[in-house]
Structures are given as structure tokens and as C-alpha cells.
Amino acid sequence: MAERIIYFAGGCFWGVEHFFQGVDGVLETTPGYANGNIGRAPSYEEVYTDRTGFAETVRIKYNPARIGLPDLVDLYFTIIDPLSQNKQGPDEGTRYRTGIYYTNQEDADAIIPRYNLESTRLGAPLKVELMPLRDFYPAEERHSHYLDKNPGGYCHIPLLTFRYLRLYQDIKNLLGDEPDLVARMAEAASMIGKRMKFFWTGFYRVDGDSLVLGPFCGDEACLRIGYGRGVCGTAWKERRTVIVPDVERFPGHIACSSLSRSEIVVPVFTAGHDVVAVLDIDSTETDTFSPVDALWLDRIARIVFGVETGDIAF
Ligand code: SME
User: Fold this and answer.
1) Helix (H/G/I), strand (E/B), else coil: 158
2) Which atom of ligand 1 is the closest one to the Cα of 256?
3) H-assigned helices in the chain
4) Cα(292) to centroid of ligand 1, in Å?
5) 254 Cα nearest atom in ligand 1
6) CA of 122 to the centre of ligand 1 (A)
7) Would the CA dihedral through 141, 143, 71, 196 be positive or negative?
8) What is the pLDDT of residues 227-242, one digit of tens each?
9) Catalytic residue list
10) Which pLDDT tens digit goes with each residue over 45-77?
11) How far apart are CA 45 and CA 19, in angstroms?
12) Of 10, 27, 62, 137, whose Cβ has the fewest other Cβ atoms within 10 Å?
């Protein structure tokens, strides 16, 4: 199938390119300047003045047989703050605005539902431009694959994001279309636990009025947890991801192991309505989990249970 192209502006193009380089199905990434107002190729220094109208943008060539445009847009939303105007991470200016620039109506039609879903999820209009590409000029050679050329160089995207992207894709690829849910949970628990070096990683499934232990990676754990009890039961009852920086400060925490110091619990929904399970992860250190963990573990849990992002109702 013929390759396709989409343009993403998501703040500093060094990090954005590095992220999309790692996405399965992406064939080529090119950092550059899009939608300016000077009618010619700018230099980085000119764009830096913020007076050329250009946005730092990455051109992404992909194989649509391996990754669809809605999935690319979904991944794009993992690395930007869509409610932030002209600012991503510490970088500020119109050159760092966010935007999805398309080159045909068919692509626009594929993007709009995901765009609207993100807006609904966040409960606010997005600050992300969604418009046709007017012009694009590749950046100077030193900017292409910048973070490969400069390992440890500046990146506004947390490094944890790159580890989760790999983990997410590996789990997705390995689980494939295996229909057995126990096998899917077991494989995922092991991969998450070992790869991220978590102390305890496992699933609890909803069974009547309690959660029952499912496949896990770690020491022996409580077999059942009541609705609203502990961190797991709270995530189930409140239908939201719960991050506990210090378990000793969480009233009602159930200590399966005295070594556990912090915890994250992510609920899993069936097509957006009922909680069917939770993904519970424990750490022996305090303050282990951040919104980056929450975002990716939610995506991973949905892969395990076969609930696509587009299926989720809010
Ligand atoms: N600490 C959890 C119980 C499960 S174990 O961490 C494996 C809770 O309070 O729900």
C-alpha cells in the first residue's frame, strides 16, 4: 500500500521526531517548519525570533497497512498538552504551538473523531490547530535525528515516555489477536513488571461485589478486595486512576506486602461503561508514579482487554 504523510507540531521538534521515529509503521521522520508567513524557507534562527509564523513541525511518512492515522493521532496526544497555548514543556512561543496539518480531506475526516474525543475527554476545547498544511520546509541537517546525534541532549518529553512507547508496542505486538484473556493478562503483567522493574504488577478482576486476584508478577497477594476497599477498591468505585505517592498516607490501604511504599491502580472499562478489572502496580519506593505512568498504563490495560481508544465513552 502506498505510504502516507501527516504533519505534527508538538513543541520542540527534537523530541517529537525522536518519539515518532520509535513508532511501528512510521517509515521516515523529518523535522521542519510549517505554515509560516514569509513565503520561503526560514533559518532556525529566524523561526526562533517567533516572527515568521512557522511552527516547529515533524513530517511523518508512514505505512497505513501497519498504523492508521487515528492511531498516530492518538499517540501524538500522549506527548503534548493539548490545552496549552504556545507552550509545551519549558518551551514557549508561537513556534512551539501544537498543530495537526493534513494534505487532503480524507485525512481530515480520519483525524476529526480522535480530535473531538480528546476534547471530550478533557472537557475543554483543544488549543491544537487542525488545518491543511500550507507550506513545509525541512530544517537544517543538524536538527534531523537530533537526539540520536546528541544522546542525552535537550528533550522536553519525559524519557519515561520513550520506554513506555516501546513497552506498549511490544505488548500490542505480542498479544496480537490472542482471544484468551488470562493469557493476555499474564503476558502483560510479566512484561510490565520485568521491563519497568516494578515490585508488584498484576490484575484484579471484578467478581460480584469484590475484586479477585488475576495474573500477576511478584510476591503472593491478597486474593480478594471489597468494593471501595483499599486503593484497588477505590479505583473501581471512583472509576478513576488512583496514584498513591505514600501508602502510609492513604487511609484504608491494604498492605499485601510491608515492602510496598507507593502504588498506582488503573481501572479497566468495557467499552467505557463498567469497570471489569483494575491494573495494580506497587513500588518499594515512595513517589514512584506520575501522570506519565497513568497515561501509558491506561493504554496498555486497554490493549490487554481489547478496548480500543475510540470505543471509550466518557
Ligand atoms: N495495596 C492494594 C492491595 C493489592 S496489593 O497491593 C497487590 C490496595 O490497597 O488495594
Assistant:
1) coil
2) 5
3) 13-21, 44-48, 69-76, 105-122, 146-149, 159-175, 181-196, 230-238, 291-305
4) 21
5) 9
6) 28
7) positive
8) 999 999 999 999 999 9
9) 12
10) 999 999 999 999 999 999 999 999 999 999 999
11) 24
12) 27
* DSSP category for residue 140: P
Residue with cell 488503573: 266
CB of 222 closer than 6 angstroms to any ligand 1 atom = yes
The finding on whether 231 has its CB within 6 A of some atom of ligand 1 is yes
Return d(Cα 213, Cα 234) in angstroms, integer. 16
Distance 254 CA to ligand 1 centre (A): 5
Q: Whose CA is nearest to atom 1 of ligand 1?
A: 254
Residue 34 banded pLDDT, cuts 50, 70, 90: very high
The per-residue b/e assignment along 295-304, b for 16 or more CB within 10 angstroms, e otherwise, is bbbbbbbbbb
Beta bridge partners of 8: 58, 100
- Taking the centre of ligand 1 as the mean of its atom positions, its distance from the CA of residue 232, in whole angstroms, is 6
* Run of H or E including 33: strand 26-34
Decide: 232 in ligand 1 pocket, CB within 6 A: yes
Instruction: Judge whether 3 and 63 are in contact, CB under 8 Å.
Output: yes
Parallel/antiparallel/unpaired status of strands 262-270 and 242-244: antiparallel
> Whose grid coordinates read 493504554?
299
The verdict on pTM exceeding 0.90 is yes
Residue 225 CB partners (closer than 8 Å, separation 6+): 204, 210, 211, 232, 233, 254
